[in-house]
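ok so i was messing around last nite and threw this chain in just to see what happens. nothing serious, just curious
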Amino acid sequence: MLRIGIVGCGKIADGHVEQIRATGRGDVVAVCDREPLMVEQLAERMRVPGRYTDLAAMLAYERLDVVHVATPPDSHLPIARQAMEAGCHVFMEKPFALTADEAAAILDCARANGRRVSVNYLYNFETPGLELAELLDAGRLGDIVHLDTHYGYNLSGDYGLAVMGDPGHWVHRLPGKLFHNVLDHVLAKIVPHIGDDFAVRTCAFRRRAATGNAMVDAMPDELRFLIHDGKVTANGLISAHGRPVAHSLKVVGARDSVELDYAARTLVHSARQNQPSAIGRLFPAWVQSARFARNGMRNLGRFGRHEFHYFQPMRVLLTRFYDAVNDDRGVDPIPHAHILRVCRMIDAIVADIGEQP
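result:
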């Protein structure tokens, strides 16, 4: 059993504690936050014995194997470096780092200290994401031609209200503001298919009415972007206003295409007309309905096995990460090259937004 500590005792830390325990690979023995009340509320509710407001003290006394970092991204580099130099592996909440340069520094530190590092790109380990990986490995889609990804963000939800109601919230300090905090969810799905030599074009704007607070009003809430590497293109849409709030991906291949809905946890092959004329237009709807029905039956089985909760993909990711930690020959669940490419894409998108009039 791995001895695990958590730095940052905000809302997301609950999910980390629950899924660490659910993996059966480790136990949370200590939590740390600069705010004592945050430490106490998490430790009391989750029955964690070790309680610290100083990271150095936690690292010195708890003999940790893994540190989970659940703090704002501007603190990730110093915390990760301190933990890895103390001999700990690190699992990072997204965004992985504030910039690609900081991300590279974290990855370099992991290599220098012989430590594992990963990040909570959980949606690649969602059921449709795992099914997509199997299709790609089998070559059933052929060469990827294009990707179309859509991520909705509800500013009326708990987290959205916290950001909108507090001009001092750390999201407002990010270079890319709201988008900087959610772009990982979009880009982590496409980086396996886009090379390092990519170009970016963006359109970002604020659709909601002004509040009169300069800090809040400076935050755009709609983003469109195009990324291409000369062979593959990807369109991205982040919307705070589109309804229903969507979370989807379409992968267009030279042989076949698929459409993933991460909210409904479905993956279906795109409709194809195989018969001529009116007959050919009649059958696809029935074929698609059967495909969705099969997805529904599989999801019903997962529900019965308690594998349909929100953080199920995080449990899968953590299990693979801990397996790699315990096996010197193990494979990181998220390649370092993909982590760095996500950060480089975020930098490019943020820079392009900043150049808009």
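not much to say yet. The chain has a mean pLDDT of 95.
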